[in-house]
Amino acid sequence: MTDDRLTGSECWPIRSRLFIGRITDRADARSFYRAGLMLAASLLCSCSGPQSALDPAGPEAEDVAILFFTMVVGGALIWCSVVGILFYASRKKHAYDAGQASRIILWCGVVFPTIVLGALLSYAVWLMPNIRPGFGEANARLRTIDVAGEQFWWRVRYQNAEGSAAFETANEVRVPVGERVLFKLTSPDVIHSFWIPVLGGKMDVIPGRENHLTLMAEKPGTYRGVCAEFCGPSHAFMAFTVVAMEPGAFEDWTKARASFDGARDAEGLALFLKHGCSACHAISGTEARGTIGPDLSGFGERGSVGVGALVNTQEDIARFIRNPSEIKPGARMPHFSMLPETDIQRIAAYLKGLQ
Amino acid sequence: MKSVIPREVETLWTLFTAPVVWAVHFLVCYVGFAVYCAKALSLHLSFDAVRIGLGVFTLLALAMIVLSAYLAWRQWGYGTGDPPHDAPTRQDRKHFQGFATLLLSGLSFIAVLYMAIPMIFIAECQR
Amino acid sequence: MSIELGNFTAEERAAQEERLRKVWGTPKGLRYWTSVNNSEIGLWYACTAFAFMLFAGGLGLLMRLQLVVPNNNFLSADFFNQAFTLHGTVMMFLFAVPIFEAIAIFLLPSMLGARELPFPRLSAFGYWSFLLGGVFVCGSIFFNAAPNAGWFMYPPLATDEKYSGIGADIWLLGLSFIEVASIAAAVEIIVGIMKCRAPGMRINLMPMFAWYLLIVAGMILFAFPPLIAGDLLFEMERMFDWPFFDVARGGDPLLWQHLFWIFGHPEVYIIFLPAIALMAMIVPTFSQRPIVGYSWIVLAAVGTGFLSFGLWVHHMFATGLPQISLAFFSAASEAVVIPTGVQIFVFVATMLAGRVIFSVPMLFGTGGLIIFVIGGLTGVMVALVPFDWQAHDTYFVVAHLHYVLIGGMLFPVVAGIYYYFPFVTGKKLSDAWGKAAFWLMFTGFNIAFFPMHLSGLRGMPRRVFTYPQDIGWDWFNLISTVGAFVFAAGVATFVIDILRPKPAPSEPNLNPWNSGTLEWTNNPAEDWGMRSVPIISSRYPLWDQPNLQADIEAGRFYLPDAKSGRRETLVTSVLDATPIQCLRVGGTSYVTIVAALALGGVFIALTFKWWIATIICSIITFAAIVTWLWRGTAQIPEAPETDVGLGLKLPIYVSGPASVGWWAMFITMVGDGTAFASLIFGYFFYWTVHDDFTAAAQGPGVVWPITALVLFVAAWGLTLLARQLNEKGPNGARIALVAAIIVTLAACGAGLAGPYLYAMDPTAHVYPATVWIVAIWAVVHGVVGAIMQLYCLARSLAGKMTGEYDQDIRNVALYWHFMAFTAVVTFAVVGLFPLVSA
């Protein structure tokens, strides 16, 4: 489950290899332009990263990254020209005639921007329905994942083919590669914003509304998403893991998750139930059916504890159980430091073992 | 045209005619589509009907702006004098107003044209 | 234009100056603070705003320290949230807008050739309100009670009492108070620029600064009221549980976002345009030639003013509105680039056509432009919806907005301070210190903010109090923090340069930069502003009108004397600036401080829900304002006309559209009408978001609203009748006024009867709450209208209002035009729209 991309150190050579692969796939002029631009850009500013909008893993993010790099080049040229003219205007030997000078207002201030902006605007407006297509009926056919942003974690529900809830997980979104997925976004508390930079733009999660966002992953990998709208004390920790999987692997995973059994470690489960954890948390295959907090089935596989606050080791889990709000300010989970240390460690080991 | 619209209309307020046309056009387009997309189910109108209606309205707005530009051109003395119009006379004050109004009409014309771009490329209420 | 200038002997001049000093002098000792002179108010305003800026900058440094390394625990999450909320709030509301009001109040009279702005006491009232509100808002952080939901205060986070505590109330009430002060300043500035220019200063000769300020003040009038309306809804929800933003009861948090950003985006241009206005004064001076493209600047200012109201949804591109709506706002956001580009190229053209002298103001000015252009280009990017879906709410936007505001506002303001420092104190700031400050600020700024573009696109969201290691943000943040401290060192250098003692110049020179505009004729050592009000025949009178300075100082123009013992200034016509009135403005007074402090008391007491204190402060405020009006406005003069010099006699008292008071009322009511329109927008907004917006609840019926409508129209008619009758004699007018008061009060009763008798519960659902709020809005205006009618009756009975001197009733009649409009819209909507929509 480890991916180089998460450690950051070796990411851009890998990305470059991917680009070379791309060129041979689609050897038309446009993809050469795209690949060249992206390669140059990633060399220049090291834009790669598990959460980088400039390191796309899906078509929407890629279109936007291309648009951005094109604008950066154009913008840099414009900026250099303006600075150059300013510099020249303040250093020149002879003053220009006012009528002559005022022509620069018309040409550089009106005509040039009108044309450039008109073209840019037309392209961007044309792009909008292209990268976020579908509406109503068209979206109803897509694979749907319900995501609820809650202070300060993500509730993720997968649906069966027939549209009923199959299983629930938290702070981790898995999607099959090469398939457009519909996210239905809701919030029971405050406004959040659901954002997976490597796949595409964000969409606010607003109480009282169900916002829809469709995204497609093209490259398998493990990425990172975040809440982008300020939502309270632990806004900074409201991240989630995104795993783009090959379709086969994804199907296997959904099957395994739908029949997950959390009762394999009976002793740990007993402690979990005894100390009341199940009032808020559910674990498939057990009598823990709380719905207030995150569903913990498969918790051991997740990348972090406290939604990105800590790495997922047994010690970290124990630390979180002892005093959640010390790690995640404003977390609604009460502290359990009054429990015997052995019980805490045992529950932590149990949770780590839920894989 | 000269006899239809007397010169008495040339006050400080005529400066704002073209931008006001832009503002009204902007609001009508925004509110029109916002209400249509919110109430599409209960309205028996297609998106294209709204599009065409507002397209016609856009042409109307552009015509208004052209009219304002014509009046401004007249106020500017049909371009007989060049800027800067900084003499302390009533005549130059009027020429200045006319020229500024003409420029604003140009800007408003561009801004209304830009408003038409979304109506060309977007064909549904998708979000 | 063959007017013979006055000619006075040395003794006559000394006697004139003695009288002018006596009339315009600033009080000494503690009474100093009762001064209303524009030079004092402007200076206090500027210093206070600057102090708030340093405070907010300090908060910014604390935040940068917290973010210097990943997983830092230098600040707690809660303190960080308070810090960034206050940082944004203070910079926007307590620095950027007030500093321009300060500069406007300070400069405008001198620039326009007026002795004073028309309502000096209103300026003083605005200042004291601003000071009190600002200290209240800033001070809250020392009690750990500062607002902590972001400067945009999105509900439901900001309406959550448990999370936001009293901080949200402090924000809402403290800032509403300051917004009132801003609108007061806008009224002052608009009337000042339209009516108080020197004779001959036609609109094609107005200084660029005045053009910009006129537009900006107009924008304030349309931008701030929606926020005030939003604040009202918000505070009703927090205080009385009216569910405007609570989805469980039909509310919608997006309404707040609309109202906030209808204010919030024009706000950016309200900040930016005055700073560019300073540039438009500086660039011609240092190019030593008139500006090239005067009309283009007018195009740019007016165009930006309008277009800036079509941008607000670009802060809401990710809220899930239909794409077509987003695209419209994207189009307007791109269109606004054009006038902005024009402004920059006007400066470039002026520099090309002149010989540029590169001194410190120019350094800051062009440095600011270079920064601003980057902000403008990233602005073009984020205005494109697909890119904004990625960049929105990331550090990219943090970088963009700081490039725009620091390059487009702070640098030009610093340039303006270097430029105008001799105008204020008679001494220049140091070139060496200025250059050091510039290079520290310029490099520090870029080091601090440029990396944020990259950290943002690498996924770093805004407003996070910490971030994990190894996802590629560490270096960027470290560099940003280092840059922030270099930038702060630059600001500190600048502050030290201002504060350090400076020797008096060996040769006093009123115009050290050889500028061409009128303000440089003023002697900072005297309080009277213009020694005499000149006749203007050029955009740059000091360059083009020979001997102007000497003639002004010798009192050879208008108003060289103050024989009446009152503060007098000229009022001229709007377009061609022909003199029409000798206006007497208010002088030194306690009443403004009392009114401001008491009004502040109302807002502060409301914050803590001290109802009795609220009522007491309200009564004091009311009494203070009535005293102020009664004793300070529409005074019947000792003679109808007065000699203003050069053989010209002008009336002292005018009423109707010729008077400044009428314009002030008109402008205020335009703002008021905008707030009302925002509430009506809210009513229809709820209609669009719900299938059945009444939620099958009981409405106010038809009978009572229509009764109220008819009665309000009748009261309006009676008020107009009173105005007509007053011209013939007092008795008929008094009877009409008594009848009008009775009908108005009946109308108010009928207005509330609908929702009250149908037992509409405003806490149950948003529909009854909306009906109540618009009805209350109309009725409160009705009550104010009745008080005005009563005031006119009292003035008539006291002999202070006669057929000839009828300002009061004319202004009240003007109020009633707006009142009637408000009432008709309100009651037609609440009474009839439910029938139409059903």
UniProtKB/TrEMBL annotation, chain A:
List the GO molecular function terms.
copper ion binding; cytochrome-c oxidase activity; heme binding; oxidoreductase activity
Q: Where does the record place the Cytochrome oxidase subunit II copper A binding domain?
A: 140-256
Keywords associated with the record: Copper, Electron transport, Heme, Iron, Membrane, Metal-binding, Oxidoreductase, Respiratory chain, Transmembrane, Transmembrane helix, Transport
The subcellular location is: Membrane
Q: Name one GO cellular component term.
A: membrane
Gene3D superfamilies per UniProt: Cupredoxins - blue copper proteins
Q: Name one GO biological process term.
A: ATP synthesis coupled electron transport
Residue stretches making up the Cytochrome c domain: 263-355
Can you state which reaction this protein catalyses?
4 Fe(II)-[cytochrome c] + O2 + 8 H(+)(in) = 4 Fe(III)-[cytochrome c] + 2 H2O + 4 H(+)(out)
One Pfam family matching this protein: COX2
Which family is it part of? Belongs to the cytochrome c oxidase subunit 2 family.
Its biological purpose is as follows: Subunits I and II form the functional core of the enzyme complex. Electrons originating in cytochrome c are transferred via heme a and Cu(A) to the binuclear center formed by heme a3 and Cu(B).
Name under which the protein is recorded: Cytochrome aa3 subunit 2
Specify the species. Answer: Rhizobium deserti
GN (gene name): coxB
TrEMBL record, chain B:
Sorted alphabetically, the keyword list is: Membrane, Transmembrane, Transmembrane helix
Q: Where are the transmembrane segments?
A: 12-37, 49-73, 99-123
What is this protein identified as? Uncharacterized protein
Organism equals Rhizobium deserti
Automatic annotation (TrEMBL), chain C:
Which one GO biological process term can you cite for this protein?
oxidative phosphorylation
User: Where's the Cytochrome oxidase subunit I profile domain?
Assistant: 18-549
Q: Which residues cross the membrane?
A: 41-63, 83-112, 124-146, 170-193, 205-229, 268-286, 293-314, 326-350, 362-387, 399-421, 433-455, 475-496, 585-604, 610-630, 660-686, 702-723, 735-758, 770-793, 814-836
InterPro entries from the xrefs?
A: Cyt_c_oxase-like_su1_dom (IPR023616), Cyt_c_oxase-like_su1_sf (IPR036927), Cyt_C_Oxase_1 (IPR000883), Cyt_c_Oxase_su1_BS (IPR023615), Cyt_c_oxidase-like_su3 (IPR000298), Cyt_c_oxidase_su1_bac (IPR014241), Cyt_c_oxidase_su3-like_sf (IPR035973), Cyt_c_oxidase_su3_a-hlx (IPR013833)
Catalytic activity reads:
4 Fe(II)-[cytochrome c] + O2 + 8 H(+)(in) = 4 Fe(III)-[cytochrome c] + 2 H2O + 4 H(+)(out)
Residue ranges of the Heme-copper oxidase subunit III family profile domain? 679-835
Q: Quote the SUPFAM superfamilies the UniProt record gives.
A: Cytochrome c oxidase subunit I-like (SSF81442), Cytochrome c oxidase subunit III-like (SSF81452)
Subcellular location, record wording: Cell membrane
**Pathway assigned in UniProt:** Energy metabolism; oxidative phosphorylation
Q: Which UniProt keywords apply?
A: Cell membrane, Copper, Electron transport, Heme, Iron, Membrane, Metal-binding, Oxidoreductase, Respiratory chain, Translocase, Transmembrane, Transmembrane helix, Transport
Task: Report the protein name in the record.
Answer: cytochrome-c oxidase
* Gene encoding the protein: ctaD
